[in-house]
Amino acid sequence: MASVTFENVTKRFDDVVAVDALDLAVDDGEFMVLLGPSGCGKTTALRMIAGLEHITDGKLLIGDQVVNDIDPARRDVSMVFQSYALYPHMTVQRNIESPLLVRRYHADGPDQPARKLTRTERGERVDEAARVLGLDGLLKRKPAALSGGQRQRVALARAFVGRPQAFLMDEPLSNLDAKLRAQTRLELVDLHRRVETTVVYVTHDQVEAMTMAHRIAILSAGRLQQVGTPQEVYEAPVNLFVAQFIGTPPMNTLTGAFTTEGGPAIGVGGSRFPVPADLKTRLEEGQEVIVGARPEHLGVSDDGTVAHDVRAVEWLGHECLIFGSVEGSPVVVRQAGMAPPTAGGTIRLAVDPANVHLFDTETSERLA
User: Which residue range is the domain that position 163 belongs to?
Assistant: First the structure.
C-alpha cells in the first residue's frame, strides 16, 4: 500500500488546461473518489497516476517516490477501465492471471530480488482473487459467456491479483444497470475492507461517491473545489458549485437581500428565510446574497415564512417530492410520510436557520 500525492500538478493539452495546479493527498489505504461533471479533469488526474498522461508541471508521488518520469509498468498500480478491457480469446482464469505473467514481484520478501512467479504461485493468487470476488465457478468460461456484472468482477480480480500499491478505477460501474451498480458498490466496499489498499476512484455519479468514499475530491473545470468526507461536502459545501452538484435533488438556491425589518432575515420577494446565528452580525442591511436550502430541510408548515407555488408532485410511497417555485425561482421540497399536496396550489414552508446556507453573489463562496 502507498499514499498518492499531487503537488501543484498541472496538465495541459496545447492551450487547454485539463488539470490546474492540483494539490491533493490520498492517504495510505484510503478510498478516495474524484467526483465532478464530464470534462472536469478527474480522468486525466487518474491517468497521470497510472503514467498514461505526462505531467506538464508539478510533482506526483506514490509513497515517497516522485513518479513523474517513472515508466507506467514500474509504478505498481493497477487500473480498472470503464470498458473492462478483457481479452476475449482467454478464459476468466487466464484474464486474471495475465498481469502475473509479465511482471516481477518480490515474492520472497522486500529485501530479495524481484522475480516472476511460479505457476503454483500464480495459481494461488488467481484462486484467492476469484474467491474474494465470487468467480470460483467461472474460471473456465470466456468473457462472451459472462454477464456485465461478471465481466466487471473479472476486471476487478485482474487488478487485485497483483496486489498493487494502489487501485485506480475509471467509472467502472457505468456500463451496469441500476441493480447491478448497487450490488457491485457493496462488493467494492467489501473488497477494499478486505485488502485495505489505496483506491482512487473516478466517477460523475454522486451516489457512488457518497456511498463508497472515505473522502471525496470534487473538481470543476480542472480545479479542485473541495475535499472532505461525504457528510462534510453535503452539510458544509464551500461554494455554490459544490452545493448544487452534491445532492439529489440538488440544493435549492435563490437570490435575496438581508433585512432587519421584522427581525433578521433574507428577503426573497414576499418570502423570508431565517439567517444562521453566526451570520446575523456580519451582514449589512440590503446586502444581496444567495440563500440555499436542501429539499429535505424545507418543511411544510401553516405558519411558514416562505410561500411555495406547487407545480407538480411525485409521490414515491416513503416520501414525496414537491416541485414548484418561490418568487419565480424553482424550488423542490422533499417530505416523508405526508399526504401529497395538490398541484396548482400554494403551501407555506419553514426552515431551521441551522440548515440555511448563504453564498456570496460575486465569488460564490459560502459565508461561514
Answer: 4-243
189, 332: one domain: no
Q: Pick from 243, 259, 283: which residue ends a domain?
A: 243
Count up the domains in the chain and report the number: 2
Residue showing cell 530479495: 112
Q: Give CA angle at 112 (48, 77), nearest 5°.
A: 15
Q: Which residues pair with 24 in a beta bridge?
A: 6
- CA-based nearest residue to 67, from 79, 49, 80, 46: 49
- The length of the chain in residues reads 368
Same domain, 226 and 341: no
Co-location of 110 and 237 in the same domain:
yes
Q: Whole-angstrom Cα distance, residue 221 to residue 225?
A: 10
User: End of a domain among 204, 220, 243?
Assistant: 243
CATH number at residue 298: 2.40.50.140
Asked if omega into 110 is within 30° of 0 (cis), the reply is no
Q: Both 211 and 99 in a single domain?
A: yes
Task: Give the number of other CB atoms < 10 A from CB of residue 14.
Answer: 5
Helices (H), 24-91: 42-50
Same domain, 152 and 297: no
Query: What CA–CA distance (Å, rounded) separates 209 from 340?
Result: 31
Tens of pLDDT along the chain (368 residues) come to 689 999 999 999 999 999 999 999 999 999 999 999 999 999 999 999 999 999 999 999 999 999 999 999 889 899 888 887 899 999 999 999 998 988 887 777 778 888 888 999 999 999 988 888 889 889 999 999 998 888 888 988 898 888 888 999 999 888 788 888 888 888 889 888 888 899 999 999 999 999 999 999 999 999 999 999 999 999 999 999 999 999 999 999 999 999 999 899 999 999 999 999 999 989 999 999 999 999 999 999 999 999 999 999 998 888 999 999 999 999 999 998 777 788 889 999 999 999 999 999 999 999 98
The DSSP element (H or E) to which 259 belongs, if any, is strand 252-259
Grid coordinates of 62: 506514490
The verdict on 213 and 320 lying in the same domain is: no
Same domain? 216 vs 293: no
